[in-house]
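Handout for the seminar on molecular recognition.
Each group receives one record of this type.
Step one: identify the two inputs.
Step two: read the structure output and locate the region that could contact phosphoenolpyruvate.
Step three: write two sentences on what you found, then compare them with the reference statements printed after the record.
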Amino acid sequence: MNNKSTRRKIVAGNWKMNLNSHQAMELVTGISTYLENAELPKHHEAIVCPPMPYLFLVSNSISEELEGKLSVGAQNCYPEASGAYTGEAAPEMIADIGCQYVLVGHSERRKYFGESHDFLAQKVNKLLQTGLTPIFCCGEPLEIREAGTHETYVATQLRESIFHLDATDLARLVIAYEPVWAIGTGKTASPEQAQDMHAAIRNLLAAQYGDELADGVTLLYGGSCKPANAHELFSQKDVDGGLIGGASLKADSFTKLIEILNEVG
Ligand code: PEP
């Protein structure tokens, strides 16, 4: 098993709570200009996840000709269609303004907003019902890596928030492995560490849903990924691209990552 060459390949930028509206537009324009001129295989896609206030602006700026090449994702959502949830955004609203993806389970949301496995499962369900694609993030903190129990830790994250899905729904997810100790720290997982965990995730998917499904799921690596280390990371046989924080805030580094993913195939 390993169909690396045919799986969907993705470079997704998580802009977090950064940029003003002018900078956000400058960034998406730079990425659009690059993609308008780039020859990319049909199964390669770039995604930008701007802060909520710029989501419509950014999504509205992307030309139809980039459909399938450049998509927009939200960084969060609330798992209800509407109602008295002050400050929240429904998946329906996010879909309505032209987004295709939503990040779920990012370690910053787990840590600062106390998001539980069960709440993440509710978000995943609601997003799938709405026709959006969850990018489900998992990954262990430093003490778990040091204790050597990282595979069990990530297995629990998957089991508690996505393994209730049937095979058709599971196959619609993108999964991002992001070791917490590598996010925003400048400390990247080694290509071997990333590959080992991606292979472990694919094995868990295979045990639960069968080899064929597991082989088709796009697994992204996230954690201080940048042009200087992306080639080695993206070359690993179970790594299908990256979820990028810091290096997604400049058009030249983000587009370089798209180029590197294209080079490694
Ligand atoms: C992230 O927040 O998803 C991330 C990977 O951040 P960074 O690339 O800055 O480590």
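Reference statements: The radius of gyration is 17 Å. Residues 14, 178, 183-184, 222-225, 243-247 surround phosphoenolpyruvate (CB under 6 Å).
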